[in-house]
Write a structure and sequence with these properties.
Structural class: mainly alpha
Strand order of the largest sheet: 1-2
Number of strands: 2
Number of helices: 44
Helix content: 55-70%
Largest sheet: 2 strands, antiparallel
Radius of gyration: 55 Å
């Protein structure tokens, strides 16, 4: 020891010599080491290393000792001496505080924590506070913990939720609610647990509603109402929470007022359902509780009174209260529809349909119904209305009418006529309903007067007509442009007025230019009923001046039909002139009916040839899809008037002009005609021509018809030629299906795109649509034996035809058909001759 003592005496301020000395004395008794430590820290009072080592050993020495041992006080004194120079070292403070916590001296610990916080810089407070908070929680002194947490939150405000959790743990509900209210109102607060503002609100409401007696600091009503304004998507639940708070607090009357206020405030059906269900459950629970109380009071009263026959006042009072509660619950259920209607009207006060539903709820209460109507017409803005706003006024007037108050109904209609509706039709409907009311009560003259008043145009607008949809002009000044109003006025005058007044109304319709084609027809029919035929015709013509096709079509048809019925064949030139005017302006959509009427007139009262010319014009004037039907009519009329042979020209023209999809029916009909006339070769040529447009897969009826024709009227060569044509067409259609559409379009000559190759049909060669049919005689036999060569034809062996020949049905054929083939034997069909040749 002497050498170490000499070293520390020579170098008392050298840390390493003291450290070597302590290491040398590592196995020495603690008292000796503590004396060396005391000498060392006295010489080096600012040595953190020495103090830390010394204090650690002293704390370790006290581990297994009793708290009453003097070593604890000595260690505390050592810590105090160390803090004189080491007061900026947080580690020394933390060790000292932990050592004090073991001693469980709350006051000393609290004061030491406060000294540490005052001494250490604020940047190192975060090392002290966690230990301080654990201490106050362990100490189980709520007031101390609350005060410490409040100080802590001034530095770490985002840790407020920990404080709330602690307050809930110690059941300090008032302070917890206050802290949560502060968090909800702090817009900058961000939950460390990821909770939203509404989650915090729910937590606050849960505390308030379940512990109403503990909440003294907060104004619960104001807090929850602020939440209602702040969270509109959860209004229903918040109202229910406020009511539940009063219920838990025992203030049932106040809870009822809150429920009623909520039902009259919420603006969504979802919130209404939440509040109404909670309200009804509240009333049911109160009713059940009162019933149980009434039963228990009745039993106690019976036990006390026995046979003495009590007055029964208590039992009657309890029974009355139960009846009153039952009445309140029934009244609530009856008011549900009305309350729900109020919610929908709060959503949109301009919803006309909901106002009508509200009035129906008061159908048995006239005073409330009138009040509702008055509020409705005062609230609904026609420019924002959903539905028909004029219907409210009409229903209001009808309500007075149903109760015999015609005078008040007229007042309502007069007020309704001055409302600024969005459209003319609404105002027109009001005037029409006004007139209909007068008609229902047989006030015919008043009804006419009402309509006369409605249909007068403003003087300054008579010379300059405005569009009825021009919103820059008041709707009352545009009323005279309403067709609905004028049509009603015309019907009224037609039934109740004179001939002159009715004609005057119809003429006003023409002048104001609000007439429709149907009104023109009505006017003309009215004039015809009164035998004013020429005036009726002039009415038709005035209507035709106002309308173009297609709107003028019903007027033209009615005009022409009435003219024909009136004059028949007396004024042919005038009728023809009318027809020419009509067909000159008509569209293709309506051309068919007009041309048929024209042709019928010529057949009945004119020349048949003119009728055929008209049908010929009709075939070119109608739409493409109606052209085939028009040609069928044309052919039928020609055949009836001039004979079937004259219809051949019409067939040729139809084949040139019809689209390919409509060719098959007309060609089959043509071939059937030639067959009936005995022109077998002509019929065969028609079949050969039509074959190029008929697919063997899709148009089997055509090929079956041709096959039947050849079996009945052909021979071996013609039947074989038919099979060859069929194979050629199969190859042609197969090639077309395989080629893409754009390739076909590119390879096709644009000039020949819509042309058909001339193919002989009987005695006439049918050319393309735009070409002319030459009247050259075609060689029938050459047409049958030498059909046009198909470049894409697929060649088949003759042996492949056996399947087609087997199915041929044998029929007797006239001898003239076979020619030289019939020599040397009886008349044979194609099938027998073909077998004989093989």
């Amino acid at each position: 020891d002497i050498s170490y003592e000499e070293d520390v005496l020579r170098n008392p301020h050298s840390l390493k010599h003291w450290w070597w000395y302590l290491e040398f004395k590592a196995r020495a008794p603690t008292k000796i080491r503590f004396r060396i430590y005391e000498r060392a820290v006295k010489s080096l009072p600012r040595s953190y290393k020495l103090w830390f080592k010394y204090l650690t050993e002293r704390v370790h020495e006290c581990k297994n000792l009793s708290l009453e041992d003097s070593s604890f006080e000595a260690t505390n004194a050592a810590f105090e001496r160390a803090l004189v120079t080491m007061h900026k070292m947080p580690r020394i403070w933390l060790d000292y505080l932990k050592f004090l916590i073991v001693q469980k001296s709350v006051t000393k610990i609290r004061r030491t924590f406060d000294r540490a916080l005052r001494t250490l810089p604020i940047t190192q407070h975060n090392r002290v506070w966690p230990l301080y908070l654990r201490f106050v929680q362990f100490a189980r002194i709520p007031e101390l913990a609350v005060r410490v947490y409040r100080r802590y939150l001034k530095m770490e405000s985002d840790r407020a939720e920990e404080f709330v959790d602690y307050l809930k743990k110690i059941k300090s509900w008032d302070e917890a609610a206050t802290q949560l209210a502060n968090l909800v109102n702090n817009e900058k607060f961000v939950s460390q647990y990821g909770k939203s503002k509404y989650d915090l609100w729910k937590e606050l409401l849960n505390i308030i509603t379940k512990n109403p007696g503990s909440i003294k600091t907060l104004n619960v009503d104001a807090v929850i109402r602020s939440g209602i304004r702040r969270f509109p998507h959860q209004v229903g639940h918040l109202w229910c929470a406020l009511a539940e708070y009063y219920v838990t607090d025992g203030r049932f009357a106040k809870a009822k007022d809150i429920y009623e206020e909520a039902l009259n405030t919420v603006s969504t059906v979802r919130d209404f359902s939440v509040v109404f269900d909670a309200y009804s459950q509240y009333e049911e629970s109160l009713l059940a509780a009162k019933m149980e109380i009434a039963e228990s009071e009745g039993m106690e009263d019976d036990d006390e009174n026995g046979d003495q026959g009590g007055s029964g006042i208590a039992e009657l009072s309890a029974s009355d209260e139960v009846d009153w509660r039952m009445m309140r619950l029934e009244n609530l259920m009856e008011r549900r529809k009305l309350l729900l209607n109020s919610v929908l009207l709060r959503q949109n006060p301009h919803n006309v349909d909901e106002w009508h539903k509200r009035v129906k709820l008061f159908k048995d209460q006239p005073i409330k119904a009138i009040t509702t109507f008055s509020k409705a017409v005062a609230t609904v803005d026609p420019s924002q209305a959903t539905g028909k706003p004029h219907s409210l006024w009409v229903s209001f007037a009808r309500f007075y009418e149903d109760h015999g108050e015609l005078k008040n109904a007229r007042v309502i209609f007069e007020k309704a006529a001055r409302v600024a509706y969005k459209g003319v039709d609404d105002l027109a409907s009001v005037w029409c309903a006004y007139a209909e009311m007068e008609l229902r009560h047989r006030n015919y003259e008043l009804a006419r007067r009402v309509m006369r008043k409605a249909c007068v145009a403003p003087d300054r607008l008579k010379s300059s007509y405005k569009d009825k949809d021009d919103e820059s002009v008041e709707v009352q000044k545009r009323l005279y442009k309403s067709t609905k109003l004028w049509a009603f006025y015309a019907d009224l005058e037609e039934n109740l007025g004179t001939f002159d007044t009715t004609c005057s109304v119809y003429e006003s319709l023409f002048d104001v230019k609000v007439i429709s084609p149907q009104i023109v027809l009505n006017y003309a029919a009215y004039l015809e009923e009164h035998k004013h035929f020429e005036k009726a015709f002039r009415a038709y013509e005035k209507g035709l001046d106002l309308f173009n096709f297609p709107h003028a079509f019903p007027i033209w048809i009615a005009y022409l039909k009435r003219f024909i019925i009136r004059y028949k064949g007396d004024k042919k030139e005038r009728a023809r002139d009318l027809f020419e005017q009509a067909v000159g302006k008509i569209t293709k959509v309506n051309a068919r009916k007009m041309y048929l009427l024209y042709a019928k007139y010529e057949e009945d009262y004119g020349l048949s040839r003119r009728a055929m010319d008209i049908l010929d014009r009709a075939c070119k004037a109608v739409e493409v899809k109606e052209r085939a039907a028009m040609y069928s009519i044309y052919i039928s009329r020609v055949a009836k008037l001039f004979g079937v042979t004259k219809s051949r020209e019409i067939y040729h023209e139809a084949i040139r002009n019809l689209p390919e999809k409509d060719l098959k029916p007309i060609c089959l009909r043509y071939a059937d005609l030639e067959k009936k006339l005995g022109e077998i070769d002509r019929a065969r040529s028609i079949y050969a021509y039509t074959a190029q447009y008929c697919s063997p897969e899709k148009d089997r009826d055509f090929w079956d018809s041709w096959k039947e024709f050849e079996v009945s009227h052909g021979n071996e060569d013609t039947y074989t030629e038919m099979l060859r044509v069929r194979r050629s067409v199969i190859g042609q259609f197969a090639t077309v299906q395989l080629l893409p559409t754009d390739v076909i379009a590119k390879t096709e000559d644009p000039k020949k795109k819509n042309q058909r190759k001339p193919v002989p049909v009987g005695d006439v060669i049918v050319e393309d649509k735009d070409g002319k049919a030459s009247e050259e005689k075609a060689n029938d036999s050459e047409a049958a034996k030498k059909p046009s060569k198909n470049q894409e034809e697929i060649e088949f062996d003759d042996e492949d035809d056996d399947d087609d020949i087997i199915d041929v049905q044998e029929k007797p054929v006239p001898a003239a058909v076979f020619g030289a083939a019939a020599v040397g034997g009886k008349n044979l069909g194609a099938k027998e001759r073909f077998k004989r040749k093989q």
